[in-house]
Amino acid sequence: MRKSYYAAHVYMIVGVISGLFYREFTKHEDFHGDTQLALMHTHLLALGMLVFLIVLALDKVFGLSGSKLFTAFFWFYNLGIALSTAMMGVHGILTVLGRSEDEIAEVVPLTAGLGHILLTVGLILLFVLLGKRVNEHVKPAAAPDEPASATATPAGGIHA
Question: What are the residue boundaries of the structural domains of the chain, listed by start?
Fold first, then answer.
């Protein structure tokens, strides 16, 4: 559970700092257009902080952490966020500095795509683990009462 708490806390800090960087960097460069730097703030807060706060709550209820699936989810998901948001930062900085889309290396969107794939793998692992834990917590429904005639013992002591 501590890993989820610390991850959420780190993403909160990095998300707020990225918003501050976006505002100050674009102001310093006198930039007034669209840039992916504007999206980093919300991605880090939503995909990082909020998701890990939700995972923390789910972990409390279903005991997710400590399993190999949770560890795999944690690292795939975090690596995916790191790659995706880093490439948003690189792309955004290059845009603010005046580079056109044609001048931005093809490796930036390819790496961001890899980050999204890793995010997806992480989410799949989380849902597989969560599904297993939910199934463990579901109690079978009590069998309905059988009709009295089927359970009653006939006079001879033999069940019908």
Answer: 2-135
> How many CB atoms neighbour CB 133 within 10 A?
18
In this structure, what token pair is assigned to residue 19?
């918003």
Q: How far apart are CA 55 and CA 59, in angstroms?
A: 6
Whether pTM exceeds 0.85: no
Task: Count other C-beta atoms under 10 Å from residue 46's C-beta.
Answer: 12
- For 30-44, b/e burial (b = at least 16 CB within 10 A) is ebeeebbbebbbebb
Gap between the Cα atoms of 155 and 143, Å rounded? 26
Alpha carbons 45 and 52: distance in angstroms, whole number: 10
Residue 134 has phi, psi (to 5 degrees) of -65, -45
pLDDT in tens, 17-55: 999 999 999 999 999 999 999 999 999 999 999 999 999
- Please identify which residue in the block is written with the tokens 């998701």: 51
